[in-house]
Amino acid sequence: MARIGYARVSTNDQDLEGQLKRLEAEGCDVVRAEKISGASREGRAELETIISFLRPGDELVVTRLDRLGRATRDVLNLVHECEQKGASVTVLDPNVSTRGDMGRVVITVLGMVAEMERRFIKERQREGIEQAKAKGKYKGGRPRIDHGRVRQLRTEGLGPSEIGKQLGCSRMQVYRILELPASERPQERTRTSGGL
């Protein structure tokens, strides 16, 4: 019987450290982590590895329910798969486990509430953007990575891996930026110093 921790953040610039420390402090024998969106299960290799290796009596531990997934259906499917293998799921905040019948109900309710909350946030955000556009104040989101700096470093002879290291992003993000046609590029700022 093992306690297996799973930590997840959605983007490369988010920090996993807090989740990792919490899971280790809770006595997880193994902790696996990844930086990928929780919108679907696709591409979440670390989570799939955990699920495939679960044995009867094992416990999958996450700090919060949304670390498992963003959609209630995905979370419930994961819980079901764990139960089929004789394993349980424990969420640390709030402290709930699927070992008892009540835990399964609580996880279902939490998933539904979280999904509804995300829909409300998106709706409010959409309304705010529409109002800002109507007033001529909306200029769109600022790109997280300075596209101009990526191109500048490329012209200086750096490869995608080195550019990614310098700017704190993945090699694939660098490739995507370099492949963008000029018509789709965000307005680029000229930089006089390195860094982000």
From TrEMBL:
Family: Belongs to the site-specific recombinase resolvase family.
Species this protein is from: Neoaquamicrobium sediminum
Resolvase/invertase-type recombinase catalytic domain mapped to chain residues: 2-136
Keywords: DNA integration, DNA recombination, DNA-binding
Protein name: Recombinase family protein
Active-site feature positions: S10
Listed transmembrane segments: none
PROSITE patterns to which the protein is assigned, alphabetical: RECOMBINASES_1, RECOMBINASES_2, RECOMBINASES_3
Domain of life, source organism: Bacteria
The keyword rRNA-binding belongs to this UniProt entry's keyword annotation: no
Signal peptide (from-to): none
PANTHER family: DNA-INVERTASE FROM LAMBDOID PROPHAGE, RESOLVASE HOMOLOG YNEB
Stored InterPro entries: Homeodomain-like_sf, Recombinase_CS, Resolv_N, Resolvase-like_N_sf, Resolvase_HTH_dom, SSR_resolvase
Entry keyword annotation includes Ligase: no
